[in-house]
Write a structure and sequence with these properties.
By secondary structure, the protein is an alpha+beta fold. The chain has 3 domains: about 70 residues, RNA-binding S4 domain (Structural Genomics Hypothetical 15.5 Kd Protein In mrcA-pckA Intergenic Region, Chain A), CATH 3.10.290; about 70 residues, 2-Layer Sandwich (Alpha-Beta Plaits); about 140 residues, Pseudouridine synthase (2-Layer Sandwich). Helix content is about 20%, strand content about 30%. The chain is built from 7 helices and 16 strands. Strands 5, 6, 7, 8, 9, 10, 13, 14, 15 and 16 form a 10-stranded mixed β-sheet that branches. The protein has a 4-stranded antiparallel β-sheet with strand order 1-4-2-3, with no helix packed on it. A two-stranded antiparallel sheet has the order 11-12. The longest helix is centred in the middle third of the chain and has 12 residues. It is globular, with a radius of gyration of 20 Å.
């Protein structure tokens, strides 16, 4: 099945390598150009969209060879406009025959979907047409900057995702939380549950009955008046994990529009600070193909560094 769908009949899409491991809702956003996002979530919830003849959820990941049933849809021609994908211009931190690791800026999604026309992976594919394989090994939120791994071979993708899944990669983030910590260390174990709002927006909350196990170890980097810069050491890799865990313990990330302190964020906007203070600062792992020890760092973006430099430290 092509991306040009017949709106008057059921269509079937066979998942290829470029689709593999995408969330179902993001895949449908890409395939159903011109279909309102709310309608896409409606047909998923109603059970009209099926994966291999079975009901599916919006956050289900699709696998190579899966058959996706897509019901008849109404496409708005006004929304079917061609979107030019800009040239990929991301700082490269590491590259070999198996991986490309970049320093992703904030404001750029990892992939298209959920109202985003294109992301990092689309830009890289567009401007590296001779690359036979480019796939995200993991994801960062759109408003999170920092180290992002892209696999250049299928074997590399499978192996690096096994490392991540089994907790053999150390990923550390820097976050500026609102409020002053009186302790230097927090080991947060709070299960997380993903859900969709009525508008189809993805959210996460702490839920001790339905949530999945999640653990983040926080340590204080520097204390400021009214703020605390913390290092977040991810022990699991749940969606929005750091953001929700910090909100849960009463120290939300500044600039976080989903889980932050909204009045404080409004005041920040008036000063010109317009982003979330969360940055994927370092990665440490054993290269799954060459067995080399890899340690990579990405410094704080200048806008974040300037902000903390403007703060007064606590005595």
């Amino acid at each position: 099945m092509s991306n040009i769908l017949s709106k008057n009949q059921v269509n079937y899409h066979l998942v290829s390598e470029k689709d593999e491991d995408m969330r179902l809702d993001n895949l449908l956003m890409r395939l159903l150009k011109g279909v309102p996002k709310t309608h896409i979530y409606r047909i998923i919830r109603s059970g009209e969209v099926r994966i291999n003849k079975k009901r599916a959820n919006a956050n289900d990941k699709v696998a190579l060879g899966d058959e996706i049933r897509i019901p008849p849809v109404t496409i708005n021609p006004k929304q079917e406009t061609h979107v030019a994908i800009p040239r990929a211009n991301f700082p490269i931190i590491f590259e070999d025959d198996y991986f490309l690791i970049i320093n992703k800026p904030d404001g750029v999604a990892c992939h298209g979907g959920s109202g985003v026309s294109f992301g990092v992976i689309e830009q890289l594919r567009k401007h590296n047409p001779h690359a036979k394989f480019l796939e995200l090994a993991h994801r960062l939120d759109r408003d999170t900057s920092g180290l992002l791994i892209i696999a250049k071979k299928r074997k590399a993708l499978v192996e690096i995702q096994e490392l991540i899944k089994n907790g053999k990669m150390r990923k550390q983030y820097l976050a500026l939380s609102l409020g002053e910590w009186n302790d230097n260390y927090r080991n947060v174990k709070a299960p997380l549950f993903k859900f969709l709002t009525k508008d189809g927006e993805r959210r996460v909350r702490v839920d001790h009955e339905n949530g999945q196990y999640a653990q983040t170890v926080f340590s204080v980097v520097r204390n400021y008046v009214g703020y605390t810069l913390v290092n977040a050491d991810l022990k699991t890799g749940r969606t929005h994990q750091i953001r929700v865990h910090l909100q849960h313990i009463g120290f939300p990330i500044i600039g976080d529009v989903k889980y932050g302190e909204f009045e404080h964020n409004k005041q920040l906007l008036k000063t010109g600070f317009k982003r979330m203070f969360l940055h994927a600062a370092s990665l440490e792992f054993t290269h799954p193909i060459t067995n080399a020890n890899i340690y990579l760092e990405a410094k704080l973006p200048s806008v974040l560094q300037l902000f903390v430099d403007s703060l007064s430290t606590r005595s």
